[in-house]
Structure formats: structure tokens, C-alpha cells
Write a structure and sequence with these properties.
The chain has about 150 residues and is of the alpha+beta class. The protein has helices at about 5-25, 65-80, and strands spanning about 30, 35-40, 50-60, 80-90, 95-105, 110-115, 125-135, 135. Strands 1, 2, 3, 4, 5, 6, 7 and 8 form an 8-stranded antiparallel beta sheet that branches.
């Protein structure tokens, strides 16, 4: 497992999200939160093993444009060194279309879901995208006695 700086991993994860947005090539509004650092499951917190996660979405675009963006992503991901590992309905009640892919070298994974508008819940149509880094070990922080 690589030892990496959390800020660098978050920046790389956001850069990967930007490339996914370019592949989607859709006009709409994007949500704004940046990448965050989370502990990797399966490791003790004292081990300092983390991953960066960047959830975001595209909304205020016609549903048909979102469907076309998903189709573009299906074509562009493999051309850009990604392997699609799932392409089909998710497990939600609405069975939303979902694409899951891993980057070459498996540094990143992306999960893209297309949600229909649900007027009764005041929920607009949305492309939901989550980019995650692979797990990495955070560099050891020097203790006060070492300083």
C-alpha cells in the first residue's frame, strides 16, 4: 500500500472528477462539495489508512441529455483507460441506471447513477457521481518528542 499525502490524494481525486465531467459533456449545474478523506474499511483507525471520496452531481439538465451523457461515458471511459465493471440497474427501488468503472492501475473508481425526476418528492432528475481513490497510508506524523 502506498504512503501518500492526503491533500495530494484529494487534489488527484478532484482532478479525476473533472475528467469525468469532461467525458459526460453535459450542460447543467454541478454540486460544489470537494473531495473528503475517510478511513478505509477493514483497517484499524490506528493504522492510518484512508481514501479520498468526491461525491457530486449534475442537475438542471433535460433527462434525455443526461441519458446521452451516460452513453458518452460508456464510450469514453474505456478510451481513457477505465474498465467498466458494472453497467446496469442499481439496487434502488427505482432501478436507476448505474455505471461503475475502475481506472487503469485501479487508482480510482467511479460510480455514476442516473436518477429520474420524482415530482412527489420534489427531487429533480440528476446524474449522481462518486469518485473514490484507492486506499493509501497517511505519512506518520512526528510526535512532539521527535521535534
Amino acid at each position: 500500500m502506498q504512503t501518500r499525502d492526503s491533500d495530494t490524494v484529494k487534489t488527484d481525486t478532484e482532478r479525476t472528477s473533472s475528467r469525468i465531467l469532461e467525458m459526460l459533456d453535459i450542460k447543467g449545474e454541478a454540486t460544489e462539495p470537494g473531495a473528503m478523506t475517510l478511513p478505509c474499511s477493514g483497517y484499524d483507525s490506528a493504522e492510518g489508512v484512508y481514501r479520498a471520496r468526491h461525491p457530486w452531481g449534475i442537475y438542471k439538465a433535460p433527462f434525455t441529455d443526461m441519458q446521452k451523457a451516460m452513453n458518452r461515458l460508456r464510450a469514453e471511459l474505456p478510451k481513457s483507460g477505465w474498465k467498466i465493471v458494472k453497467d446496469g440497474p442499481d439496487r434502488s427501488q427505482g432501478k436507476s441506471p448505474q455505471i461503475v468503472a475502475e481506472s487503469e492501475g485501479r487508482e480510482f473508481a467511479v460510480d455514476v447513477r442516473l436518477h429520474k425526476e420524482v415530482k412527489a418528492e420534489n427531487s429533480p432528475a440528476m446524474l449522481e457521481i462518486t469518485v473514490e481513490s484507492r486506499c493509501y497510508r497517511s505519512p506518520a506524523t512526528p510526535t512532539a518528542s521527535e521535534g
